[in-house]
# Entry
Amino acid sequence: MAEQQHNSQHNLTNQTRVPTTNKTKTPQTTTTMKASLFLFALPLASAWKLELWAKGGRKTTMSGRLDSGCNDISFTPVLNVNKARFSPKTDLLPDPKTFDLYVNKGCKGLSYRNGKGTHKLPARKIRSYKVY
# Structure
């Protein structure tokens, strides 16, 4: 009986063993490595930046690499902007030249237009912008 019990334990052990293999992993392709390097370098690329300061010390910053199209600024209460700084430098793409600030959402009611640099302006309520 002891021999039969020993064989049962041996069979149980054999059933639970996981066979090992000698398979080797295939090396990563050059394409994968190039894609990884590209994704790593992407955040290092520069982008234009538009900073707006408002009365009461509030500040907002927008940035991008292409023309922005129309963008609404969702602040409550609305930003009463008195200073703007535009840095248009982008790598590998044409730099935008101009930014517009609008009184209304949907880029309606042009309030201010300028280019590169820091600009002080009389306080005005701004609800949307474009960079192009």
